[in-house]
Amino acid sequence: MPIKEKLKRSTKSAVNSKHMLKGITLASFLESTIVPVPLEAILIPLMQARKEKLWHIATMATLGCVIGAIFGYALGYYLFDLVGEWVIDTFFSPEQFETVKQNMQDQGFWFVMTLGIAPIPFQVAMLAAGATQYALGLFILATVIARAIRYFGLALVVYLAGDQAESLIRRYKTKAIVGLTLLVLLLWYLSTLL
């Protein structure tokens, strides 16, 4: 069975579950740490089915991601020598990771914001922040802002578009991500001029 079908079945069973919000938090944690499947595949249909819990779902997805980000930061901070090589080999090349580390040291906050919005595995930002011992408070702030934009943005589209949200998101997702990423990059650039 294709993964998309499995996700749809899981979403349908989660809609009426009393553990739905806890499940979203766990799914968001897993998506931000080890499962490279975008959470939107579950969130959008769930938000459409449970509109009365729309903002709760976005909050729990953001919370799960932030907890996952702190976990990833801790891995980078404390265990990079042990697990870092495996993660780099799995997700990136050593050269890409060195570039990420350099960016983290130079412009960590904006770098985390950009990776939190762009369709790039966020695990790299978490590990790089921990490995370079970037300020944890700034890392968490950037993560919260980036992921809140992502999840509350989805919730807003579902709130405004209702049952048409999924098709709208599918149609304009790439343009929205590119636009938001460019906006963050522009703000990043402007911050270097100050």
Please tell me about this protein's structure.
This protein is mostly helical. Helix content is 84%, strand content 0%. Helix 4 (54-91) crosses helix 6. The longest helix has 38 residues, at 54-91. The protein is globular and about 45 Å long. The protein starts with a helix and ends with a helix. The model has no long low-confidence stretch (mean pLDDT 80).
Helical content stands at over 70%
- Decide which structural class fits the backbone: mainly alpha
Rough outline: globular
Name the average pLDDT.
80
- Count every helix, treating DSSP H or I runs of 4 or more residues as helices: 8
Number of strands: 0
Question: How widely separated are the two ends?
Answer: 53 Å
Query: Nearest-angstrom radius of gyration?
Result: 17 Å
